[in-house]
Fold:
Amino acid sequence: MNGLKVLITSGGTREPIDGVRVMTNSSTGATGAYIADEFARHGADVFLARAQGAVQPSESSVKQQTFSTAADLDSICQHVLAGEEIDLIIHAAAVGDFVVESVEIDGLSYAAPITAKLPSSAKLSIRLRPGKKILPHLKSYSRNRSVRLVGFKLTDGAMEVDAQRAIQAVFASGADWVVHNELRTIDTHRASVWSAKGEVAECASLDHLARHLLLLGVGAGAAG
Structure:
């Protein structure tokens, strides 16, 4: 894999509510860190956009930048993809669907985020708005027009038909492959890797998933 350049995103975004409180998710970034280590051990040039506080890779050759908000992550992706000839993007970060638009305190509305700590005795209401979807923009950010993209999709108890719709939505956003996993088996790292042609590889462990992505990386490097 010498010469292969890979951008990996990992961990969950954090959207501020006030000076100390945030809205986030339960992603630890362990999957992205593990995959980054595997690519680095096999000689790839790895760039990791990692959430603050997320699991860190062990390989010292991995080039890291940390993000907090979805806007931070989007900015890092734009910078790396415009500056480096990235062959493969593995977008494993859990990007929040919403950002905080405003906070109502005892009936009065204020634009978010509020820099001070909100009083714990106040009656609060939080208004959310949809955040920017990063995945559909990643290929357009890239200086490499042949860049390949792996998207991730987590479902929670979805019927097969609903899971298929969710997977197809990721393909519609520009992904070449989709890693699908279910919340109920997330701790075992079981996943299905789908290709745009409908081919599926079942991965029973995180190691198995990483090795399959390595094979996709070889193909992406050859295509580039």
Observations:
- The chain has a mean pLDDT of 93.
